[in-house]
Amino acid sequence: MREGQSKVIHRADYQPPAFWIDTVELCFDLDPAKTRVLNRMRIRRNPDVPPQALRLDGEELNLARVLVGGQGTSFKLEDHQLVLENLPEGNEPFDLEIFTTCYPAKNTKLMGLYVSNESFFTQCEAEGFRRITYFLDRPDVMASYTVTLRADKQKYPVLLSNGNLVAHGNLDDGRHYAKWVDPHRKPSYLFALVAGQLVCREQRIAARNGKEHLLQVYVRPGDLDKTEHAMNSLMASVAWDEARFGLALDLERFMIVATSDFNMGAMENKGLNIFNTKYVLANQATATDTDYANIESVVGHEYFHNWTGNRVTCRDWFQLSLKEGLTVFRDQEFSQDLAGTPSARAVKRIEDVRVLRTAQFPEDAGPMAHPVRPDQYLEINNFYTVTVYEKGAEVVRMQQTLAASSESDPLGRKGFAKGLSLYFQRNDGHAVTCDDFTQAIADANPESQLAQKLEQFKRWYSQAGTPRVKVQTHWDAAAGIYNITLTQSCPPTPGQAEKLPFVIPVALGLLDADGRELTSGMHVLTQQSETLSFPGYSAEPVPSLLRGFSAPVVLEYDYSDQQLLTLLANDTDPFNRWEAGQRLATARALGFIRGGTPAGELRLDEAFLEAMRAVLRHPDLDAAFKELVLTLPAETYLAEQLEVVDPQRIHAVREAMREQLAEVLAADWEQAYEANRENGAYSPDPVSSGRRALAGLALTHLCLAARKTNDPVWPGRAYQRFKDASNMTDRFNALAALVTSNNELAPQALQRFHAMFKNEALVLDKWFALQAGAPDRNGNILPVVKALMQHPDFNIRNPNRARSVIFSYCSANPGGFHRSDAAGYVFWSERVVELDAINPQVAARLARALDRWRKLAEPLRGAAREAIARVAAKPDLSNDVREVVTRALAD
Peptidase M1 alanyl aminopeptidase C-terminal domain location, by residue (predicted)? Predict the structure, then answer.
């Protein structure tokens, strides 16, 4: 194996560090070819651990000097560690000095210190700091940092690190320096530095206590006009966290820096957040409404880490969801609160659940299934997953729900805030566990159901898999009693054959046949099976189950079409109203997929079509909600409902359903387009964004309908819209309508789009992704993808660009990827190996495109296994990729 640990790490084997590092003084002489790093540390033995050698982690470093107490000392280098045995005895602190060099310009992994667009950046989570200097690179070692940066002033006029700038000035030979001191202890994964040609948007704000803070957003010259939304999002985040949870900004300044070469979305380094440009840069000409929403969410997420992740951090990497699941929950709440209206909040909730179902549920059912708090790993980078993040957020959300202990706090918000306050009171400045968090929420709300069922609730952290709640109802007409029986189970997952019952909050309501609500409430399911009785009804009610998606479970209930139509038309719970439409569509899609009728001959029934027409015409529903209801379930979601999967059949059926919705509802789509296409001056607010989303969906369907009749009118209008649009959302929606309908105007529009935005990297990512993810017709997409990789603007070393082409095809275009000739799998295997030599983290993400290969119908299953085995046979794979393919092949 090329690097790093080659053994499985187990949570049960955790041991506290043998040494503590109290202070760190780092001095960098920055040079792309060879950066010199002087590291002076004040270290002391941990009195609770038997005396042993000091083992410091390090990778791809050139070691020049080691001094203990100012004197030379003996040392060993073994297994990527610097081993020091001849150290002072006793518990008195001692000084250790290490001088190393590293090579940022050659660092294609983008972990540690690297160069992007002639500027220096760092990424240290999870284990990147060891690529900068030798260190106890683990999250439970928290130290105070002083950092001095020295560099050529003309090439690198901006020098940034964590904390507060305490000194700066000029040096000899055209160089300059900056000295930064972080007033808060932190683990090494939160260290950051940035140096380069950058410009800055600044904003001074005053906290509730009157203290002033400086907010800064740094970008490359030429991008400053795209930073207003990021700054507004940062100001909103600071205000929201103080108002909602009483958590104030604790630094004199807070900085965000954007770079185009970044493995992740962003990184919450204390006071110096480093972001992928995708989540910072936006103006109406280059960014869509989705981009604006994502920037708001990610800026909020990284800022909220300032407390949930930085002030209190993880004891070990198995506790990753302690910070990530909690902070995803916080950024979801932030976006919902900023959305304002109940409808806009519901849209945000539906969007979050859709991600969970289409990405996390399949992960729970696949070879990489793991608990929210994993028990073991070979490579920690592989566990930055939707299970840790999104499912972890749902586990936190349930704790808020279960913290409700009085009628004055029905949603649990007050109880949860009280628990979070206790969590910080107990743990501020420490590295702790998921259990510590849950215990604090329970202890702050001793009368709550969370406190009463605490040990059972913790199974959400220790048991993998998606629980299934089967519902059976019985109507006793003579007695007027309606019974609901809830039964929970959880399928086996790798390493966990048997599962104990979970604590599952089930929000539910009952409606009468005319859609009027009869009752609503919350039941907490703790046993394997429980029955609820509702007496006093004169007619059988319609159940509205798992309202608001109150728990991350699969709900199994055999709804009748009439019940679903009633819920779709009348349910007061927006989530279940949307869910009713999705269930109606899913039932029809699965019926078509399992049947043998050719896709071109499939016909949707009148009841479903009329229900969709009623949604489109409804005068009181928001446009954003209509767009969600009228969007058919994703192909990946449909695949998860099947035992054996033929991706091309799923694609063909879904496309046939879309085309029928387009044709039958053409007049309604036209009306929806005309009613929503003009919004006045551009604003990314939820109402305006929803109108543009519905107009875009309508235009897509109108172009689909025109394809069958060869009517040039709507494609012509789409092309005109593409040319005349005043914002990227409308322009890109029009372009996508032409491309996805395979209209003859699409090539011309694509060429024009590229010419307009050839100097805008993020916009070109959209251009690449649209083509690689387009509907496959007669096997035409793989040749397009291969051609795109030869395009002058394609660069596989840039993660965003690699994702825009390779991932858009392999992970987001199942109809095109799962080819009967297995050419898609061959392409996948070649790209995984190619990327692994450049950037193992990106390669491992791509490797997961075939996680669910065992569900594929033959001969796809055998071909997919062969492709995975071909990758696994490579002798020099990174741990990142080897863990993924080995687990995929495991019996």
Answer: 561-890
Let me know: does 44 contact 93? Beta carbons within 8 Å. yes
Task: State the amino acid at position 697 in one-letter form.
Answer: L
**Full-model pTM:** 0.98
Six token digits for residue 629: 């209801």
* Number of neighbours of residue 380 by Cβ within 10 angstroms: 20
> In the predicted model, is pLDDT for residue 271 greater than 80?
yes
| Separation between Cα atoms, residue 710 and residue 703, nearest integer Å | 10
> 9-197 in CATH: which number?
2.60.40.1730
Distance CA(70)–CA(389), nearest Å, equals: 45
Q: Give the residue range(s) of CATH 1.10.390.10 domains in the chain.
A: 313-462
Q: Which two tokens stand for residue 72?
A: 């030379």
Q: Which of 25, 125, 302, 659 is catalytic?
A: 302
* Model confidence band, residue 4 (pLDDT cutoffs 50, 70, 90): very low
pLDDT band of residue 795 (cuts 50, 70, 90) is: very high
Cβ partners under 8 Å of residue 330, min gap 6: 241, 300, 301, 304, 308
> How far, in Å, CA of 341 to CA of 533, rounded?
34
Fold classification of 758-891 is Zincin-like fold (1.25.50)
Q: What pLDDT, in 10s, does the model give residues 806-856?
A: 999 999 999 999 999 999 999 999 999 999 999 999 999 999 999 999 999
CATH number 2.60.40.1840 given to 469-558: yes
Q: DSSP for 449-504?
A: HHHHTHHHHTHHHH--S--EEEEEEEEETTTTEEEEEEEEE---BTTB---PPP-E
Sequence-distant (≥ 6) Cβ neighbours of residue 366 within 8 angstroms: 851, 852
Interatomic CA distance for residues 780 and 172, integer angstroms? 60
Residue 715 CA to chain centroid, in angstroms?
35
- Check if the beta carbon of residue 542 is closer than 8 Å to that of residue 495: no
Q: Which two tokens stand for residue 135?
A: 């260190």
Q: For domain 313-462, say whether CATH 3.40.50.2000 is its number.
A: no
For residue 653, pLDDT over 90 is answered with yes
Residue 744 falls in the annotated catalytic set: no
Q: Whole-angstrom distance between the N-terminal and C-terminal Cα of the chain?
A: 23
Chain position carrying tokens 């019985």:
474
Tell me the Cα Rg of the chain: 28
Asked whether 718 and 699 are in contact (CB, 8 A), the reply is yes
Given a contact cutoff of 8 angstroms between Cβ atoms, the answer to whether 327 and 301 are in contact is yes
CB contact at 8 A, 358 and 634: yes
Is residue 794 within 8 A of residue 805, CB to CB? The reply is yes
